[in-house]
Amino acid sequence: MSEKKQGKHVAIYGKGGIGKSTTTSNISAALAEAGYRVIQIGCDPKSDSTTILRGGNDLPTVLDTLREQSKVRIEDVSAVGFGGVLCIEAGGPVPGVGCAGRGINAAVELLQELKLFEEYKPDFVLYDVLGDVVCGGFAVPIRDGIADRVFVVTSSDFMAVFAANNLFKAVNKYAPSGGARLGGVIANSIQAAYAKSLIDDFTDQTGTTVVGYVPRSITVAQSELYGKTVIEALPESGQAQVYRNLARYIDENEESVIPKPLNAPELKRWARSWGDRIFEVESGVVHNMASI
Ligand code: ADP
Ligand code: MG
User: Fold this and answer.
1) Cβ atoms 39, 67 nearer than 8 A
2) Ligand 1: which atom is nearest the Cα of residue 17?
């Protein structure tokens, strides 16, 4: 990177629909509430990362704006949201054409060219990245020294754990040559009794840790309908406190690891063992694990 890095750059990955944007926006809101200057950059072709920071409104994406005008200013592709969070959406290619990772590249290049970080002097830059990491483009924030640390959002659903394991593979590959390291796992949508144990076991197996458990909560759905984060809509709720704790963790801890992803047969074996344990729960067998 030519530009001197300003602030802590954190990327949040996870499977589509798992709660990345909800979690990232609430963390941004909590950091802003604590007095920090925050930039949130949506790196998902869905381009709705920052919607709940801005009352549910749309924002022109970097890629669309670059397509339409030759000269782009920061004001054209950003908006100030709750608590002063500066919101940006990288955008995606025309559906069915090109690589979705291009949006991330284009956005990062433009922001460097416009010296946004030097001039805005953020304390935190949060990248909300679609993390199925099947395409090299999505690995850009981890690969090219853009983010210092990466967090992954997962639920106890196998497909979400599978995506997290793939992200671990990417971090494991790039970290030794200057890529980002893993800050930890954010366990989202915790509801079923076994969910915590399953995610804890996965992090044990991969040399990682859970940095926060976020319950599945109706407060999230309600706040989303108002186009707001929980921090803004229901600041006194327990759920808001959960997001504040996550923000505090990211602020106060610098710990990071190079994860040890499971290979395909190991992951399959691990999944089957949990299938068996969940079956036993259903049939009333009691083990010495939490509620199992
Ligand atoms: P992603 O950005 O990973 O695609 P979103 O953050 O858009 O996912 O979340 C997908 C849906 O799940 C949204 O409708 C959101 O409100 C809901 N959701 C996310 N986390 C929670 C939670 N902890 N409790 C209840 N609903 C949640
Ligand atoms: Mg999203």
Assistant:
1) no
2) 4
Q: Which tens digit of pLDDT belongs to each residue from 1-26?
A: 444 578 999 999 999 999 999 999 99
pLDDT of residue 192: 86
Of all atoms in ligand 1, which is nearest to the CA of residue 223?
16
30's enclosing H/E stretch is helix 20-33
pLDDT of residue 284: 67
List the residue whose alpha carbon is closest to atom 6 of ligand 1. Answer: 19
Residues contacting residue 268 through CB under 8 Å, at least 6 positions apart: none
Q: Where are the beta strands (DSSP E) in 19-120?
A: 38-43, 78-80, 86-89
Ligand 1 in reach of 235 Cβ (< 6 A): no
Query: Which of these CATH numbers, 3.40.50.1240, 3.40.50.300, 3.50.50.60, 3.90.550.10, describes 8-261?
Result: 3.40.50.300
Minimum CA distance residue for ligand 1 atom 9: 19
- Residue owning tokens 């996870």: 14
Domain ranges across the chain: 8-261, 263-292
The verdict on pTM exceeding 0.70 is yes
15 catalytically annotated:
yes
Of the candidates 8, 20, 44, 128, the residue annotated as catalytic is 20
* Segment 153-199, tens digit of pLDDT: 999 999 999 999 999 999 999 999 989 999 999 999 999 888 999 99
Q: How far is the CA of 176 from the centre of ligand 1 (A)?
A: 32
